[in-house]
Task: inverse folding
């Protein structure tokens, strides 16, 4: 026996799912209450210019949204989904969370407006709190309908569209049923505040054109989002623009009201339209009800999308048997009812408008960045030039400041705080976004420019390739490398695996990810790398030569001190080989001696040979620039013969001011009864870090040299052995 499952969720097409809710939200309250005021203050040409400017910004933004929408499979969440999949989860959440509350508060706004206009016909004095109770009842009604079925809510908008159309037709018939007049061509500003002009009127009118995104909010309920979103949205904007160009003409040429009456902020349509009360008021009520339905359909779907991405409680993403986000819908309704208790919402309304407009800025920015980066995956069926989207973003920002600088700053501050909070949560996402392509574009641009500077000593800093066995036991090496480059150079941490890739298949991807996780936990910024080589020594040489990209190759190799004699011999052979291609070498024996409260000291043993002194002194200086070492004393020491003493002392004393490195100097004679090594041990046994130069042993002499190094470092704490291989790299200037 076949068991029937739940019926599939109803999906909608372009007209019912996108065009209808969008155009009805555009043709809303401001059209009825403020169009006459606009014409009465700025005249017909000014009114048409305002419509064209406002609609132009809206049209550009709808094109940008359409471009992004046609480049992906659009899921539930509308604008939030587009932004999060394009610019990342953090920015998507910073926009999406306020968007949910904006949609929810919009339910309250529109329900308040509908309740007020209906109760205006109350025949007697109203009992206390009647307005609030009627508003709450309207919210519960539309929430109940929308939570049960989006199809019912959307189909109810068809008769509403007929009522709005009938009210516009009634206005036109009323105008042409009386003599006509020549419209006013010059602005008069009869009822605007003192000093307020064209842009003040523009700012008051602009919210009238911002309803186009309501249809995009139904993205998860559409049969073909890629097809329906651009067509439904763009045609809604075009339809709204045409109607908005027609209405000021009708209001400007009518003789039923004077220009002075037009400029009054009231329902002037009732005085002009035929059967005004009977045709205009139902249109107004229908527009308010439609806008409320649009908000109660869109808000819960944003919450559902946030929950799917882990930015809201998971239970809010649950859907009914018919595919409706019922829990999210009732949460939205409950918040909207609670907002009724706030009474007047004018102050909140400005912030809500700003938050909506920041959405439009980010939509334009998203389309512009996608186009500029030019990722191969960005193949929208609607191509919008980047410059056009940038114009849309800049124009929207300008409008935000025109409407209210304070509310604009408050909205941006709120979203920035949310963005920073979500960044700190280190959100994980399974999809790619445009940021990777953006950084790649910037990196390529920088590398091409860097190429022309070559090995400029003035800009030299160590880019270090650190070879490690077990990273968790050698994290101190990585920390030291980052101290050397002050988190400005590039540190690569490499693990070499001995094997044969033609016969074996090591999981280098997992190993690299584990290394990167270890670095992250330790708070170290470095790039993890795993390489399979046939032999450690030859492999280290090959990896060192190949490491890096374009003009940003590693210039320094770092090894940890090997406790095995043969390991030190291999490191010396690698040092000699990489020196032939201009790569310096650092071998580090970590043995910290620092105790809290102790004055740190860094000893640099200077011999003035093989250019090692320059690099050791520079590394000591770079180390001292870090917060952990800023109070350390750098002491440059040298052991000389009697004949060399005066010249060396004079040379070092003159060198420090010249190279602008704060260091003390000490030049000493070797006592006849002690070896050089014994003197060094005696002088530097208490130093936290000792820098020593490395010579390049002749072929075949590596073992003897390695034995001598073992004896030398045994008397010190942390020891850093340096071999500077390049005539210019690290040269002190």
Result:
């Amino acid at each position: 026996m076949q068991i029937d499952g739940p019926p599939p969720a109803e999906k909608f097409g372009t007209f019912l799912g996108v065009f209808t809710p969008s155009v009805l939200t555009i043709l809303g309250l401001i059209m009825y209450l403020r169009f006459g005021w606009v014409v009465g203050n700025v005249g017909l040409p000014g009114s048409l210019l305002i419509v064209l400017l406002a609609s132009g910004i809206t049209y550009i933004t709808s094109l940008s949204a359409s471009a992004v929408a046609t480049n992906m499979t659009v899921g539930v969440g509308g604008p939030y989904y587009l932004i999060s999949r394009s610019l990342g989860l953090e920015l998507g959440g910073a926009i999406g969370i306020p968007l949910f509350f904006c949609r929810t508060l919009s339910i309250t706004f529109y329900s308040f407006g509908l309740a007020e206009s209906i109760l205006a016909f109350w025949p007697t004095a109203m009992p206390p709190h009647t307005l609030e109770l009627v508003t709450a009842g309207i919210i519960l009604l539309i929430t109940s309908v929308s939570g049960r079925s989006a199809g019912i809510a959307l189909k109810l908008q068809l008769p509403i569209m007929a009522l709005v159309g009938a009210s516009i037709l009634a206005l036109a018939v009323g105008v042409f049923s009386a003599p006509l007049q020549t419209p006013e061509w010059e602005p008069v500003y009869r009822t605007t505040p003192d000093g307020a002009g064209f842009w003040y009127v523009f700012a008051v009118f602009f919210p009238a054109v911002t309803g186009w995104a309501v249809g995009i909010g139904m993205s998860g309920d559409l049969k073909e989002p890629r097809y329906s979103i651009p067509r439904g949205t763009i045609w809604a904007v075009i339809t709204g623009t045409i109607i908005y160009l027609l209405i000021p003409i009708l209001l400007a040429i009518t003789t039923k009201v004077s220009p002075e009456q037009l400029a009054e902020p009231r329902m002037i349509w009732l005085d002009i339209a035929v059967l005004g009360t009977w045709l205009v008021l139902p249109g107004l009520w229908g527009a308010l009800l439609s806008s409320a339905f649009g908000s109660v359909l869109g808000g819960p779907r944003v919450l559902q999308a946030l929950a799917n991405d882990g930015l809201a409680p998971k239970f809010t993403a649950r859907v009914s048997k018919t595919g409706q986000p019922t829990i999210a819908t009732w949460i939205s309704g409950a918040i909207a009812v609670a907002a009724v208790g706030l009474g007047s919402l004018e102050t909140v309304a400005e912030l809500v408008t700003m938050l909506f407009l920041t959405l439009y800025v980010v939509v334009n920015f998203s389309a512009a960045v996608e186009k500029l980066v030019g990722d191969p995956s960005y193949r929208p069926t609607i191509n919008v030039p980047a410059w056009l989207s940038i114009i849309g973003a800049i124009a929207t920002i300008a409008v935000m400041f025109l409407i209210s600088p304070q509310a604009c700053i408050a909205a941006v501050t709120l979203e920035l705080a949310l963005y920073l909070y979500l960044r700190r949560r280190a959100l994980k996402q399974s999809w790619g976004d445009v940021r990777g392509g953006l950084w790649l574009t910037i990196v390529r641009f920088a590398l091409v420019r860097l190429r022309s500077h070559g090995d400029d000593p003035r800009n030299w800093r160590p880019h270090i390739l650190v070879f490690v066995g077990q990273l968790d036991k050698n994290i101190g090496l990585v920390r030291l490398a980052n101290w050397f480059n002050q988190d400005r150079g590039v540190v690569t941490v490499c693990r070499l695996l001995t094997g044969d890739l033609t016969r074996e298949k090591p999981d280098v991807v997992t190993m690299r990810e584990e290394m990167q996780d270890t670095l992250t936990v330790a708070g170290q910024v470095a790039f993890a790398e795993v390489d399979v080589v046939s032999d450690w020594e030859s492999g280290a040489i090959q990896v060192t030569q190949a490491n890096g990209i374009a003009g940003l190759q590693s210039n320094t190799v770092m090894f940890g001190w090997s406790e095995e004699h043969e390991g030190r011999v291999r490191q010396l052979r690698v040092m000699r080989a990489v020196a032939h291609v201009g790569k310096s070498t650092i071998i580090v024996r970590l043995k910290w001696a620092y105790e809290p409260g102790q004055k740190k000291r860094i000893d640099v043993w200077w011999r003035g040979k093989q250019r090692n002194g320059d690099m050791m002194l520079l590394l000591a200086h770079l180390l001292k620039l870090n917060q952990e070492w800023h109070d350390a004393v750098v002491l440059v020491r040298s052991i000389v013969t009697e004949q060399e003493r005066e010249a060396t002392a004079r040379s070092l004393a003159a060198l420090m001011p010249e190279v602008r490195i704060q260091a003390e100097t000490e030049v000493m004679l070797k006592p006849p009864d002690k070896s050089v090594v014994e003197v060094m041990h005696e002088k530097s046994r208490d130093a936290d870090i000792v820098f020593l130069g490395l010579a390049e042993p002749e072929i075949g002499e590596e073992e003897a040299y390695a034995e001598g190094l073992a004896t030398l470092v045994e008397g010190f704490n942390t020891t850093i052995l340096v071999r500077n291989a390049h005539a210019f790299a690290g040269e002190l200037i």
About this structure: The radius of gyration is 36 Å.
